[in-house]
Write a structure and sequence with these properties.
Elements lengths: L4 H17 L2 E2 L11 E7 L6 H20 L8 E7 L4 H13 L5 E4 L3 H14 L3 E3 L14 E3 L4 H14 L4 E7 L2 H13 L6 E8 L7 H8 L6 E4 L5 H11 L6 E3 L6 H7 L7 E4 L15 H15 L5 H20 L4 H9 L4 E2 L4 E2 L15 E6 L2 E4 L4
Parallel strand pairs: 2-3, 2-4, 4-5, 5-6, 7-8, 7-9, 9-10
Antiparallel strand pairs: 1-3, 11-14, 12-13, 14-15
Family: Belongs to the leucine-binding protein family.
Keywords: Amino-acid transport, Signal, Transport
Protein name: Leucine-, isoleucine-, valine-, threonine-, and alanine-binding protein
């Protein structure tokens, strides 16, 4: 196929990014005389979604390094071919094509945002190569696509967990303010679909753009809407932190709920003291030290947290946990299939049963390419800059 100047420019950018990040192949021991198993990844390690993609990238590198030091998989090393799309959906699709056509990967773990994931899905579906996404929106796995899976809870599940908590607190009338990014729009739509199931009505529905720096006009409308008892903010990135700060500045004083899209220490740091009292659904990873010893996730999340924080010197985040579960599920599928054939790997991923991960307990099927329910979410409240479990309170 002839190359245009634009395509050559994109390819050059891809090569430059690839060279900067490099592939990860850590040969150790005689077992690594065999050809490596090539696994692809495209994450948003830089750009507006870097607080998601950076811990994903660090986790994937860390786990592959550990795996290769133990002898790899099927007696072969793992080679991680990793690209940074900077949060740009067009770049993500270009890198996805390169992973298939040039790098010849057997599977892919990545896709930091809903937008970049949706841009890459056709590439992996057409090539019949398994793609485990690390993004949130339900559209990634509903309707089910043969080769696409994901590890984060869906936005629909987050809505349900939040509304369960609101119902338990006797809240029946709320306001919403949502980001217009892919995740925010998707979660807003899912919340509006299920809110009536919990006897809750949305009295006012506002939104903000991804580059907006002040949401006080929208929040003032919510504040002045009669009967509103709580506010829900579907969104990710800096937007929810700005909403939280503006919310406190206006002295609204009603319970404020955020989504799992901000379940990281970076949100608490960005929002500052205004985050006090905010509730959100999140994986058990954020409260690893507070889990009961009998909790099935205790050992997994404690070990991952320790490994990540020791290796990076940074607090663990749920987003890195999505990457941890993605690469673990993939490696276990390769071991189960005893093959690097993409079709056999796909079948083994779909047959995942009872995998205890950092995000929850996964059981997938031909009709469910996520395998998590509301029970794998923990309702948390931010108190004193820390996460405090708030189940049914």
């Amino acid at each position: 196929m002839p190359q245009t100047a634009g395509s050559r420019g994109l390819r050059a950018a891809a090569v430059a990014t690839f060279a900067a990040l490099a592939t990860i192949t850590v040969p150790t021991g005689p077992s690594h005389a065999a050809d490596p198993i090539r696994i692809g990844s495209v994450v948003s390690a830089t750009g507006p979604a870097s607080f998601l993609g950076d811990p994903e990238q660090k986790t994937l590198k860390l786990y592959v390094d550990q795996l290769n030091k133990k002898g790899g998989v099927l007696g072969r090393p793992i080679e991680l071919v990793l690209y940074d799309d900077g949060g740009d959906a067009n770049k993500a699709r270009t890198f996805a094509t390169r992973l298939i056509e040039d790098d010849k990967v057997v599977a892919m773990v990545g896709g930091t945002t809903t937008g970049t994931t949706m841009a890459m899905i056709p590439v992996f579906e057409d090539a019949k190569v398994p793609f485990i996404s690390l993004a949130g929106a339900i559209e990634i796995v509903e309707p089910v696509r043969a080769y696409v899976f994901k590890t984060p809870h869906t936005d629909k599940t987050a809505c349900q967990k939040i509304f369960e908590d609101m119902k338990a607190r006797g809240l029946t009338k709320i306001g919403m303010i949502s980001g217009t990014d892919g995740f925010g729009k998707s979660m807003r739509a899912q919340c509006l679909k299920v809110v009536g199931d919990y006897g809750i009505t949305v009295a006012i529905d506002e939104s903000y753009g991804p580059t907006d720096a002040d949401m006080t006009p929208q929040l003032n409308k919510i504040k002045n809407t009669a009967g509103v008892q709580a506010v829900l903010n579907p969104g990710f990135g800096q937007g929810p932190a700005i909403v939280t700060r503006n919310y406190a500045q206006l002295g609204i004083g009603l319970p404020l709920y955020q989504s799992h899209g901000v379940a990281s220490k970076s949100f608490v740091d960005l929002a500052g003291p205004a985050a006090e009292g905010v509730r959100l659904p999140a994986p058990a990873l954020l409260i690893a030290d507070k889990l009961a010893d009998t909790d099935p996730q205790k050992a997994v999340v404690t070990e991952y947290k320790k490994s990540y924080e020791t290796a990076t010197g940074q607090p663990v985040s749920t987003f890195g946990g999505y990457g941890f579960d993605g690469i673990q599920i993939l490696v276990k599928a390769i071991e189960q299939a005893k093959s690097t054939d993409s079709q056999k790997i796909r079948d083994a991923i779909e047959a995942t049963k009872g995998y205890v991960g950092a995000t929850g307990l996964y059981t997938m099927s031909p009709t469910d390419h996520l395998g998590l329910g509301t029970e794998s979410f923990r309702m948390l409240e931010i108190r004193g800059g820390d996460w405090v479990p708030q189940e049914k309170k």
